[in-house]
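User: quick one, fold this
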Amino acid sequence: MHRKSDHLKKIEGTYRSDRSTKKTQEGLEVLEKLPRAPKLFNLNGQAKKWYMLLGKILLQSGKLTKLDIPNLVLFANRFSTWEWAKKEVDKKNDVDPGSGYVQEFQSGARGRSPEYSIQLECEKFLVQMGQMFGMSFKDRAQINHFFEENSDQLDLFEQLLGNGTSGPQSSLTVIGED
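Assistant:
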């Protein structure tokens, strides 16, 4: 027989915080310590630094689970790529202002520099990942609202089915049954 999750115990009304052994989120164990970055992802030195920095920030939220680690690795890797692209754009702009953003071809045509394109794509990705991890005011509010427990919901459902312990029994009938 398997142990009931704390979430299930809360729904049933039998949860006791003094007996809960681990913090969980949606049935997953919340990490208390950041694990090493998986070797499978082969992070470079800068990406490892970003992994540790972002991981520490996310650990403080109390919601980071093992399931989030691959996304954290992607987040850190993209931060490292963004950092490289930003440095390259800045180097070119130091030599010739604006040259980090625009490249000129032999034909005279002008276009966005590859480094600047990489920087912009990384920024889009970082904003999306930040939203997923709740790193803005708006996203934190939405995430917190999503995880707030509303004990009335179960009662309402139970009342609808006619199994509720409080309130009137359901008077719903199936059409065709008399």
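User: anything notable?
Assistant: Residues 166-170 have pLDDT under 50 and may be disordered.
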